[in-house]
Amino acid sequence: MKLLLATIAAASATATEANPIRRVVSLLQAMQEKIEAEGKRQAKQMDKFICYCKHNTEDLKGSISDGKETIELLASKIEAATNGKAQAEAELAQAKEDRAEAQKTLADAEATREKEAAEFAAESGEMKANIDAMGKAIPAIEKGMGGSFLQVVQNLAANTVSISTEDKSQLEEFLQGATAQGYEPASGQIVGILKQMKET
């Protein structure tokens, strides 16, 4: 069988070699078949491309629309964030100013409190000394110390700052009157005045 096929092929090859027109026609037919096959293949590819373009165009239109919405959304978020940042910066600056003012106020208040505390400590010490002196003077008067008592009371009145000027003048008048007229025991009045001064 192989031999038969080889013989047929050789005979047809001899026949085509012998006739040049036949050869050209065969070539043209082969080219036509090749071109038709290429055209079918290209038509198939073109159909696929058209289908791809139709579907892809719709997808791209959807993506473009989504992209535009995303751009608008992001632009509004950026604007809101920018406004929020500006507001936060303004609030931060105001908070810094308020903090600096509060620290200054606090420092001033601490300085005032320290000054008042020092004044109070000095005044308190003096008042305690005066009260102690009165505490000693009252029992001495009550025991009837006589003339030396007048000297103690005069010294106490002269050194006491917390006694009002009116009380001091009354006490001095009383003591001068007692010295000028000769001392007469009036310890009840003196004790009463001293007790009243001690309480106030």
Could you characterize what this model shows?
92% of the residues lie in helices and 0% in strands. The protein has helices at 2-18, 20-143, 147-159, 165-181, 187-199. Helix 2 packs antiparallel against helix 5 (187-199). The protein is rod-shaped and about 175 Å long. The mean pLDDT is 78.
| Global outline | rod-shaped
Percent strand equals under 5%
Structural class: mainly alpha
Helix share bin: over 70%
In short:
The protein is built from five helices and no strands. The chain is 92% helix and 0% strand.
Please tag this protein with its features:
200 residues; mainly alpha; 5 helices; 92% helix
List strands and helices in order, with pairings.
Blueprint: H1 2-18, H2 20-143, H3 147-159, H4 165-181, H5 187-199
Helix pairs in contact: 2-3, 2-5, 3-4
